[in-house]
Amino acid sequence: MPEQLEVFYVGVDVGTASVRAALVTREGLLKSTAQEPIGIWEPESDHYVQSSTEIWEKCCTVVKKVTHGVEKSQIRGIGFDATCSLVVLDQSFQPVPVSQEGDPQRNVVMWMDHRATEQADRITKNGHRVLSRVGGVMSPEMQPPKLLWLKENLKENCWNKASHFFDLPDFLSWKASGSLTRSLCTLVCKWTYCPPEGWEASFWTSIGLDDLLENNFSKIGSVTCPPGSPLGEGLTQEAAADLGLDPGTAVGASLIDAHAGGLGVIGADVKGFHLPCEGLPITARMALICGTSTCHMISEQPRFVPGVWGPYLSAMVPGLWLNEGGQSVTGRLIDHMVKGHTAYTQLQEQVQQRSNIYSYLNNHLSSMANSCSAVDLLGSSLHVWPDFHGNRSPLADPTLKGMVVGLSLSQTLDDLALLYLATMQALALGTLHILEAMKEAGHEIRTLFLCGGLSKNNLFVQIHANTTGLPVVLPDQTEAVLVGAAVLGACASRHYIFSDMSQYQHNNITKVSRWKSTETLSAVTVEIWICSFAQVEMEVHSVLLQSAI
């Protein structure tokens, strides 16, 4: 009997500044990964745009890299996730410009683009009932205000020419399969779609976008399906040639990138780790997907949390509800604070290829404290309000700005390290603020599950454990977002069918390792220290919060 070839799935993740792909085994193990950068343009302040043509080309490049040397027949499915950016195409599916400069190749309004803040405020004041599903406030990072901005500011050059408005994840699945079916993940989370009823025509009419009702909402999506559903007949001939795969390879309905991370980590089997969530429903867990921004996700019965998006039905796992908190910038804010400091040049000279700058800063803080256990206390006189790009949750105020309290005239490498520490502490306190809002609404969260780029920063993870007082779990497969994307391809191939959460947990292909507290402290001491430190810092956080309000 001939030897049976191993089966693989491909996951593609389009983040803010790069495209990644992974070849994943049936057991959920990463076989190979690849990454390519993508361009970002800022034609005006708070305007961020990209090119869907370039993004697709980079997707093809990374897929070819990870599948090199593997028989095409071994690839049984492919799934895509991406940022919730807005892609605009004309009737012939060609790019349409989204900026005054008029370059048609720059046809993507990025997720972090805040040009539509005024439109979002008007939509909020309109008070339509759909706002109850987005925490009561329309964010400029969602698609309705961006669409309204395009109509009001680029009517001739964009709006009148546009025939298709895609969320970026849906654009990718369309390019791969030719299917215009949209994922419930994107439409429910970013477009106000509500299954099973569908679109609320009165909402679009009330905000001045009644022209989107034409042809049964064909411009923004007439047909929907849950994430991981098979699309069309699989890869089209053209897409298969672009990607270097077989035509007909299964394509799964897409996810937003953060939701792919949630899918890849939150259902992990944690038996034997003695975690407080063990034996409890999935609702005792919250996934933090930490990258350029951070999203906080939990699947649950429907609960309305002020300032927190959702509840969303079938947005991450079919048949389950989702609440989504978030911080608009996390990794990007840390980069901003570190690279904008006067001592950054000195930091680069010190690193000199020996490690990355953040590993060096973590070690530098430890040496400043003389022991890892005292690092948190170094930031006791320096405080950061982290809303440099507004507050997504739970204040839901995109107009908020950041601030730093406790600066001196000193600008040494030590000062840079302390600012870096204070920024991460502020972000962790933002997570605590979201947790408290969810708890007030009835959520009982016992354990945090982290993935994404920042979860590879040991100090970032430890600070979150210290600040929230909750255990933090990290996946054994560190690229949980890519694993989540590959799961979509596995679902579409019909090798895995996640019909309910028990099936999902049973088939979940992510293992976990528990984040451990500093070994020099006893378990009792750690618990007391965590609670007392979080309380002291939260008092400062509350003072800053009152000032901001």
From TrEMBL:
The gene is FGGY. Coiled coil: none annotated. GO terms for cellular component: cytoplasm. CDD domains: ASKHA_NBD_FGGY_D-RBK (cd07782). Belongs to the FGGY kinase family. It holds the Pfam family FGGY_N. This is FGGY carbohydrate kinase domain-containing protein. NCBIfam families: 5C_CHO_kinase. SUPFAM superfamilies: Actin-like ATPase domain.
